[in-house]
Recover the amino acids of this structure.
């Protein structure tokens, strides 16, 4: 199971980019002017399609929504669909949630770091320091 967090160019996505509306079923979640992170997170919560839900979750996390970032971290920590377990990515997303004001992410990140190898922890800490929003390719997508 390999999912990525980022805009994928598909025929459907290309077609929806040309439409004037921003209905959830036709909207591009990565359109920077579309919605704020809270609205995107609400769409994630209401989505019944796991793959499409992941897209809304990722978009909300990239827009700085700390609960969305924490949710991303938890999915990576435990390998919840549609992603595989990846403690480095989990650490990074917990760090982003903490930076954006979610105090609970500190304890979750600390617990996770106890489960990580020293090499993974070093990589995760370096990634957290250098992460810049703007795309999901940083996360393997």
């Amino acid at each position: 199971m390999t999912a990525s967090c980022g805009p994928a160019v598909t025929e459907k996505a290309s077609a929806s980019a040309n439409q004037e509306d921003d209905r959830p079923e036709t909207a591009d979640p990565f359109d920077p002017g579309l919605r704020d992170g809270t609205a995107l997170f609400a769409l994630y919560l209401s989505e019944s399609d796991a793959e499409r839900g992941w897209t809304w979750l990722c978009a909300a996390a990239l827009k700085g929504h700390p609960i969305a970032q924490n949710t991303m971290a938890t999915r990576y920590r435990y390998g919840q669909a549609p992603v595989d377990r990846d403690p480095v990515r989990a650490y990074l997303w917990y760090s982003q949630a903490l930076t954006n004001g979610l105090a609970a992410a500190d304890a979750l990140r600390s617990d996770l770091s106890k489960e990580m190898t020293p090499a993974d922890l070093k990589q995760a800490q370096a990634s957290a320091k250098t992460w810049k929003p703007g795309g999901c390719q940083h996360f393997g997508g």
